[in-house]
Each structure stands twice: as C-alpha cells, then as structure tokens.
Known about the structure:
Strand order of the largest sheet: 1-2-3
Number of strands: 6
Distance between the termini: 52 Å
Number of helices: 11
Strand content: 5-15%
Radius of gyration: 29 Å
Helix content: 55-70%
Amino acid sequence: MTKLLLRLFVKDYQNTEDMRVRASVGKLAGAAGIVCNCILFLGKLLAGLMAGSVAIIADAVNNLSDASSSVVTLLGFRLAQQPADADHPYGHARYEYLSGLAVAVLILVIGVELVKSSVGKIIHPEPVDFSLITIAILAASILVKLWMSLFFGTLGKRINSLTLQATSVDSRNDVVSTAAVLLGCLVGYLFHVNIDGYVGLLVALFILYSGVNTVKETVSPLLGEQAEVELVEKINKLVLSHERVLNVHDLLIHDYGPGRCFASIHVELSARIDPLAGHDIIDTIECEALEKLNVHLVIHYDPVLTDDAEWNDMHQVMDEIMQEVAPEVSMHCFRIVGGAKQKNLVFDLVVPYETKRPNWELKQEIDRKLLERKKDYGTIIRFDGKE
C-alpha cells in the first residue's frame, strides 16, 4: 500500500536525496494523516455519543488532534522547502524539526485533557451503553491506526524525518489507547462493570509518557546534538582518501535541517607542498563532499613538517608521554615555536567528555614528564572538547 501511494503521488519517489522528492513524501504523509484521522474522529465520536463513554469520546478527540498534527506536518514540509534568503542564509529546513516539536506538544496537551476528563469520570461515574457497533468501530480503528503507524514509520526511515517518526509513534500510541478503550468496552459489555474512567486515565498517562519522549527527540537537533557516527566516518573517509592528506582533526558538523548540513575540518598537508597545489586539493575535497555527501564542507589547511629532525623527535616524545598520561586523549596541530628563553611545544589536545581529570592537571602531568626526560621545552596547549 505504501509503495502504491508513493508511485501514484510522488514522482521519482526512490530518489530520496532530492529535496523536492523528500518534501513530496512529507506532504503525502500529511495528506494521508488528515484524511484517515478525520474519518476516525467522526466514527469514534458517533460511537462515543451512542455509548455515552468518556474514554471513546476522548479517543475521538485524540484523533482530531492527530489530524491537526498532520496539518502541522504538511505545513512544516512546505515551509522547509523555502530557499535561503537574507535573513536565513542557511535555509528554512529546520521548520521540519519545529513541526515535529509542535506534534509532540499537541500529544502532551491531549494527554493532559484526557487526564482531566478521566478523573472526572472516576469521581462521578456515569452508566455506559456499549454495543456491538461500538466495538466494531473501535476494532476497525485499531487496524487503520496500525497501518498508519507502519506507513509513517516507513516514510520516516525512507527520508530520515524526525517529524514522520514522531507521527508514527503517535499513531502507535493510538493503537495502544484504542485497544485499551476496546478492552474496557468488552469488560463493561460482558461483565457489566464500569471501568471507563480508569481506562481513560491509563490511556492519558501512556500518551503523556510518549509525548515527553517525543519532545526530547525533537528538541535535541534544535539544541545541536552530536552528529551521527556514520556521517562523521563518511566525511573522514572521503578526506583521507586523497593520498596527499596526512591527517584530519577538529571536524565540526552543523545541522540546519534535513539536506542543509554544514561542516568544517582541519586537514594536514606537508608544509613543503606548493600552496597552489594544496589549495587545489582542498577545493577538490570540498566539491566532492557536496556532491557525494550533500555536505557543505569548509577546510582549514594545516601545514605539517615531515622532514624536520627536531620536530619528528619531539613529536615522538609527546606521543609517548600522552600514552602514559592519558591514552584516550588525541593530539594534533603539533609545532615547535622559538621563545625568548626556551622553545615551546604548541599543540591541541582533544579530551573526551568522559575524561574525569581536569585540563590543568593534564598539563601539569605533561610538563612533569617532559622534565623527567630532560627536555627543555615549555608547553602551550589548547584543549578541545571537555572544559
């Protein structure tokens, strides 16, 4: 069914790297959500009014909110398509993240309202008139919502969309909540026990729990989360594939929304290389990153002495010291600078966040190890990562 809809409504649907295709997939998901949720709302509202059940009516209102969420999703993908302008030079792709956050907030609002109505029904219970028609409507709703969860999940993975993945989770929640309501209906119908309010409260708590998790997932990229390991590996591999590149470090990746990824990296080349040749290498790598990875990469050129005896000797000494002091820490940008009284070893250290020792303590230990080896050098260290 998913592939059929993609073939009918999305041209060249397999080319998900194309931002136009991506937007079309998102719009298809939004339109499908609006249609399905409106049908479910009308069906459940009718069943709830017939039975006088707060749980069923609440579930119907939940579907109406889902339809609103689908409108937000549709709007988010449309706004994200806007090109960059003077006020937003990095584009508008983060609108998709904002639409995902809006969906998550709607989930929370519905959860709170369900808690209120369910508690009221527990305190002031009213008779519920269930029928086979009501049970049939709820059973059909479960099947529809199960398909919608799979549909949104498949599309979300296909285009790597947090918004559609959040919508998939919301649809999955609806399967659970409607199943709980159906169970309550069956218990009331078979055993004449009114647990309508309690079922509604359980459904509401489940929705709130899911809403909190969805908010966390959608807020994370807006705050600036760690880049995906796979993307980091791809960028490093692409840069290092050029034989004249000695090493890379200080890779920074900035996510401005799907398809709007900007990155910077330091690339080490021999200091003896012709500057024009070095620039040509860097320019080629930047073009390849955009073409192959859809990443706007900016490269900082670090010249490295590879045939200087003093540099090689002290670099080896520092490698040995770092293995003794903190093997988890990596060193780069190593150079020797002449001072008025003594020479200084100038370098950067990348300190993992899980390292417990403070930076000043690491520097003291490094200086002490240099003195033990009778190396008359000072150190000027720039620490990357942990403060």
